[in-house]
Amino acid sequence: MLILQLVLYCLLFTAMVRISVRGGAVNGLYFYPKPVQERAFSIGLTDRETVRQKRKRFMTAFYIVMLTALVLIIAVWNRVGTFKEAYLQALLFLEVMNIYDGIVIDKLWVGHSKFWVLEGTEDIPFVQTWGQVLKKRSFLALIWIVGAAIVAGIVVCIAKWR
After folding, report:
1. Which of 7, 54, 89, 162 has the most C-beta neighbours closer than 10 Å?
2. What range does the domain containing 7 cover?
3. Do residues 60 and 66 touch, judged by C-beta distance below 8 A?
């Protein structure tokens, strides 16, 4: 059951990213490295304020949806009631999502799909190197240690209400 839940959680992650770029990859310009963003601004693909607003809207919705889904999986679907068990499950989900994002989203989807190539920026590298992926994912792995504790705290509060 846990494998199915992990797959569904990663599919939700993918859906959130895909929704953010409906209408074209330029709508997800905030995902790109600064040099690509600067070129996109200079050639008029979009402007800084639009990107800032889209990033803020996406990140807010993303965190709310992904947090809510994770809490519901652990608290309601799995009926976890202890902090330790909730923490371990949350950490597992967050770390799997972290690895999934680095390998499947960044390296495979973005790295091998023409969808993500922005016209006028083709000469600027935008796909992270394996070294960059490893560095970013290692940093996020540490962040998720704390994030899992927050999720576990919410799960325990929900368990007390049941």
Report:
1. 89
2. 2-161
3. no
The pTM of the full predicted model, rounded to 2 decimals, is 0.95
Cα separation, 59 vs 62, whole angstroms:
5
Structure-block tokens of residue 71: 């809490």
Other C-beta atoms closer than 10 Å to the C-beta of 104 total 14
Full DSSP string of 88-140: HHHHHHHHHHHHHIIIIIIIIIIHH-GGGPPTT-TTS--SPPHHHHHHHHHHH
Q: Can you give the pLDDT at residue 40?
A: 98
CB atoms within 10 A of CB 19: 14
Q: How many distinct structural domains can be found in the chain?
A: 1
- For the chain, the residue count is 162
* pLDDT tens digits, 35-67: 999 999 999 999 999 999 999 999 999 999 999
Dist. CA 3–CA 78, nearest whole Å: 13
Query: Tokens 């990213």 — which residue?
Result: 17
Distance of CA 151 to the CA centre of its chain: 16
Place of tokens 């049941």: 162
Distance (Å, rounded) from C-alpha 92 to C-alpha 69?
14
User: For residue 161, is pLDDT > 90?
Assistant: no
Q: Which residues contact 67 (CB under 8 A, 6 or more apart)?
A: 151
